[in-house]
Design brief:
The protein is an alpha/beta fold and 513 residues long. It is 31% helix and 24% strand. It has 16 helices and 23 strands. It has helices at residues 3-7, 33-44, 59-63, 66-81, 116-130, 136-141, 215-226, 246-258, 314-317, 352-368, 396-401, 417-421, 449-461, 466-470, 481-494, 497-507; strands at residues 24-29, 49-53, 144-148, 151-155, 158-161, 164-173, 177-179, 207-211, 230-235, 262-265, 267-275, 278-285, 291-296, 298-301, 305-307, 321-322, 325-326, 339-341, 381-383, 388-393, 406-412, 428-434, 439-446. The strands form six sheets. Strands 1, 2, 3, 4, 5, 6 and 18 form a seven-stranded mixed sheet that branches. Strands 19-20-23-22-21 form a five-stranded antiparallel sheet, sandwiched between helices. It has a four-stranded parallel sheet with strand order 10-9-8-14, with helices on one face. Strand 5 and strand 6 form a beta hairpin. Helix 2 (33-44) packs parallel to helix 10 (352-368), helix 4 (66-81) packs across helix 5 (116-130) and helix 4 (66-81) packs parallel to helix 7. The radius of gyration is 26 Å and the shape is globular. The structure holds flavin-adenine dinucleotide (FAD). Residues 29-35, 52-55, 59-61, 64-66, 69, 150-151, 174-177, 195, 216, 308, 311-312, 343-345, 350-353, 355, 384 line the site of flavin-adenine dinucleotide.
Length: 513
């Protein structure tokens, strides 16, 4: 049966079959980014809301995801910049070489080592600073009833938590995702880290093997390498960030390599053994079938995410799960029309900003019967390595694979004055347009790419053309100028010799042919 058939598109949005009057308008399960926004938004709109969370409110983003990873990357970046003093014509710190080696233009001194526990303490301080925003007190003050307990459905209309039977007109599954553990023999017999444990490390990390060359693996590999850990990144695909265009991912790989990250790409782990402080990972290389091994003091698993479905009583609730994914449609309805899903639990793009977007979609559908749909065309994201890699819409590789009639334009940061003043010339921006110049996608790999991509997200959302970006004045000298300069490439390309000849003739221009 197809997903749409299962979901019965004829069913009116938000239909309720229950005859018993429910206690709440909305029962939200999970207090991460998605659940918190649904709960606060629902209460703000006048609904009676109960929010069930098994741990602390705040979820992955605050405790194990975006916030700690960005705080750690910032510490690593500040530490790393010490290497660059000589490159900016600056004297060494305290009149001595900043790190263990002689600085010289173009040459990097030996790596210094930061204290991982101290860096993690700062990460935890950042979390504590944000925590009050997501506290139960704040949500209670907003009018949300907060139940701190693990819960499960006992039937299609009842969620049991803390010994209570919670009945609501609509339920929202916002239970997030967990790190996926690859089936490597021996993994369960060695200590390993995931994003749920790494940010509270209270010990030094001499060497780290990172399994997984996606965004999380790349960000953490770079952060630890810059803090002085010997890092090896192992990934199954032949290159990192396999979802992105190869040339964009290569800019990130080269940067990680210059930070000292070693790579085993196109390699499949076959066994793990050892003990705390001495962990051995064996693998096979896909290319030549050869075997290899890495020994390191720590092992990090960053091999993807799996939706949280276990222990929720989804079968009892009539919510179908296929291959670990909660079946849902564009309105984020599950196979039980009174149960919605939002955030990572929806199994779509797993980002905090997507979770927040889902919250709005669910509120409109569940409370007001307005048929809102989850956006899938204009969803920006960013991998926060240095340089950052950000994207919205389709990549060049995807456009080719889909055999679209498209045009592609690229502009390099090396040609941007601000990139030269700041010595951040690696990377480029690329836009994909249709033949009429309408924007289909943008990739930016370079400094502040995550900020710059917002302009292309807006342009795509408003169905603009490349010429619309060309026509906007951008502040000089900013990194954001890359957006206009790449759009200008299309303008230049459309000035064919024939058009130029016509213009010369029409306006009496006398420049060279
Ligand atoms: C290392 C890392 C870095 C990341 N960086 C970024 C980034 O820079 N930008 C970005 O946009 N995204 C980033 N993400 C992704 C982002 O963290 C997630 O997309 C986001 O947190 C999802 O929010 P959510 O509400 O769907 O789920 P979660 O935040 O996981 O919340 C789900 C909640 O449900 C609770 N729960 C589960 N089951 C039950 C139950 N039975 N009863 C009660 N409660 C339950 C859980 O305890 C949890 O608190 C990152 C993720 C990781 C792992």
């Amino acid at each position: 049966m197809t997903e749409s058939a299962r979901l019965n598109p004829q069913a009116p949005v938000g239909r309720t079959i229950d005859t018993m009057k429910p206690d709440y308008d909305l029962c939200v399960i999970g207090g991460g980014a998605a659940g918190l926004v649904v709960a606060a938004g629902g209460a703000g709109l006048g609904a009676k809301v109960v929010l069930v969370e098994q741990n602390r409110l705040g979820g992955d983003c605050l405790y194990y995801g975006c916030v700690p990873s960005k705080a750690l990357l910032k510490a690593a970046s500040v530490f790393h910049q010490q290497h660059d003093r000589a490159l900016f014509g600056l004297p060494p710190l305290n009149g001595r070489p900043p790190l263990d080696g002689p600085p010289g233009a173009g040459s990097r001194p030996e790596k210094a080592v930061a204290s991982i526990p101290a860096a993690m303490q700062r990460v935890q301080e950042v979390i504590r600073g944000i925590e009050p925003h997501d506290s139960p007190e704040r949500f209670r003050a907003l009018g949300v009833e907060v139940v701190q307990a693990r819960g499960r459905f006992t039937d299609p209309r009842t969620f049991e938590a803390d010994g209570r039977q919670l009945r609501a007109r609509r339920f929202v599954l916002a239970t997030g995702s967990r790190p996926a553990l690859p089936p490597i023999p021996g993994l369960d017999s060695v200590p390993y880290l995931t994003n749920e444990t790494i940010f509270s490390l209270a010990e030094e990390v001499a060497s780290l093997t990172v399994i997984g060359a996606g965004p999380i693996g790349c960000e953490l590999a770079q952060a630890f390498a810059r803090l002085g850990t010997r890092v090896t990144l192992i990934g199954r695909e032949p290159r990192l960030l396999a979802r992105e265009d190869a040339d964009a991912a290569e800019v990130v790989r080269a940067s990680l390599a210059s930070d000292g990250v070693q790579f085993e790409l196109g390699a499949t782990p076959t066994a793990v053994s050892g003990e705390a402080g001495r962990i051995r990972l064996e693998f096979t290389r896909a290319g030549d079938g050869s075997a290899g091994s890495i020994e390191s003091s720590h092992l990090l698993i960053a091999a993807g995410r799996k939706v949280t479905v276990d222990g929720l009583g989804l079968a009892e609730a009539g919510v179908e799960v296929v291959d670990g994914r909660i079946v849902n449609d564009d309105r984020l309805r599950t196979t039980n029309p009174d149960i919605y899903v939002a955030g990572d639990a929806a199994g779509r793009q797993m980002f905090t900003h997507v979770a927040e977007h889902h919250a709005g979609v669910v509120l409109r559908n569940a409370l007001f019967h307005l048929p809102a749909r989850a956006e899938s065309r204009v969803v920006p994201w960013c991998t926060f390595t240095d340089p950052e890699l950000a994207r919205v819409g389709i990549s060049e590789a995807e456009a080719k694979a889909a055999r679209l009639d498209f045009e592609s334009y690229r502009f390099d940061f090396a040609e941007l004055d601000r990139a030269r003043t700041d010595r951040e010339t690696e990377g480029f921006a690329r836009i994909i347009t249709d033949r009429k110049g309408r924007l289909l996608g943008a990739t930016i790999v370079g400094p502040h790419a995550g900020e710059a991509i917002a302009e292309y997200a807006l342009a795509m959302a408003k169905k603009m053309k490349a010429a619309d970006i060309s026509g906007v004045i951008h502040v000089y000298p900013t990194f954001a100028q890359i957006n206009r300069r790449v759009a200008d490439q299309r303008l230049k390309a459309t000035l064919t010799p024939t058009i130029k000849r016509w213009m010369r003739w029409l306006f009496g221009l006398r420049g060279p042919q």
